[in-house]
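User: Fold this; tokens only.

Assistant: Input:
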Amino acid sequence: MARMIGALRIENLEGQTPRSALVNNMLSPCLKVSPSKELFRHLILAAIALILGSAAAPAVRAAADQPPILPLEQVKPGMRGVGYTIFAGDKIEPFEVEVIGILPNLMGPKQSIILVELHGDKAEHTGVVAGMSGSPVYIDGKLMGALSLKFGVFVKEPLAGVTPIEDILSIPTGDSSDPKTLSVRSSVGDKAEPAAPGWAASLASAAPLPHYPVPEKWAQVAGAPGDAYLEPIASPLVFSGFAPATLRQYAGEWAPYGMVAAAGGTAPPASDDAKVVPGDMVSMVLVQGDISMSAACTVTAVREDRVYACGHPLFGLGASDMPLARGRTLTTLASDFNSTKIVNAGGVIGTLTEDRLTAVMGRIGPAPQMIPVDLTVVTPAGEKQFHSEMISNPKLTPLLMGIIAFNGLTQNTAYGEGSTMKLSGDININGHSPVSLEDMYAPTDQFVPDGTFVASSVQTIFTRIFSNPYEMPKIDKVTLRVESTPDRRVVSILNAWSELSEAQPGDPVTIKVLLRPYRGTPIIRDVPITIPAQATRGSTLRVQVSDADSLNRIPNLVAAQGRLGGLDQLISLLNRERRNNQLYVTLLKPTPTLLVEDKELPDAPLSQINVLDQKRLPGNSALLRESTAGQWSVRMDEIISGSTSVFIKIK
């Protein structure tokens, strides 16, 4: 018997669990001896099951690393196979799969999908689960593809789409010798392209989650409604250490990418974290530290040090650089709306390098460098410090920075609505001067958390840095400090006037500004200025009394149009921006100003203006109608809003 068992083949049978397939393969010669051997058969079956015990699953896991593939052209309706995924713990469990048909070119030219129906108690109870994407599907022991698509929401029937394995393995590997990689690199150049300009960019501005309509004949075969469609299986986006307010505020940002926000945690690193096999879970880490944030899906195949997962894109970023970690499944929650796995991120095992249409791919090995973020929150109750790290990506990092800032503010027992917040800090950029942050933010009557304004401002600055058209910035570290005061400190500019309607060059003049504090009594603030000695007699000067936004608008417009000379000039412009807790008084004269890159050139000569006519200005220049003859500011402990003008005639 020992000799017979040693010569047997181990392979998966269609529709059978790994253990039953293994046992039946080992018994196959005995099963054909004669009916009189039935008792002997049962004895052998029991003995082998006892001997194998828990060893059967590891044998299947080890053998599944490099299975032969089943080409799409060989897939036929009616075929039955088996898929593998984790429903709870680290146990990879089988579910039966039946091929319904092929949907040619569903996702694009030569991007077909295999329509399947899942069988088995768990699959039929939960339907297709968020986090199940990437689950490998085998027929006759050959890898057919990865579970990747499901029918739209409120359809719990276990119907799914499978991405053919050939399309999964065809994504670029990142190797310099890979012709696909070479073609991708040559199409974008040696440097990574920054995101398109847009200071208020967010993930929610992306295209909605794709819907792939299913032809009616196939929908009827599958028992789905006539207007059925397939969409990518959602990936659990696990937030650990985040306040519920943060999840409510930002969950919608990830919806266009098929992410389901879920509370979760992290698992301690284990010695076997890197020993992933098809059917295991992996997590793509976005943030780690005192708080963590990761997206999870299932491993489809392992080729040498390459791990293929998901069966569909995560964000569709193409070449990527984010930590790849082991995923540890706690349980699966069944829902008519969207069943989901609860997954903790385990130890980091490598780097996600490719995020493509048909799969994501990572490499086992070192993790990528992340951006350290130190956040200090000061309230009347004391000071709290938070440390985390986030990935560096033009599209994701600004939003992640906003989420980290918002969560640090709201995840505080002393936090309350109606607080004025003062922000300070630095963004250290490799090879450049740091970006200095300093501003104040007041609460409003809008039905949004007050921390939103701080988070949105920080997010906008990061978007401006990453969307610059000059070079890809490498951020070394971010340091933020937010001080919270429990009242609304806002004053509005009601009016302004001068003691003198006429003045001579060199005269001191006092500008009186009428301010109204929030729900307070109006006050008058004096701002002394001096008429320039070079002021032209007979001219009229305009005195603009304003908040910071009015002064920042024009230079920022120039920067948004890409008229700066490089990242250094953008940083210089950011550091020169006026702060909204200062009252500004600007003396303007009626002579043009040229804005060239990050510099202001007042009193531009007429000869130069004739050459640089406004309609024919070069791309890095702009022309203003007035020139600044002087500027004064008064720092206040409130946020200033509003603008008005005073006119003084020069005698």
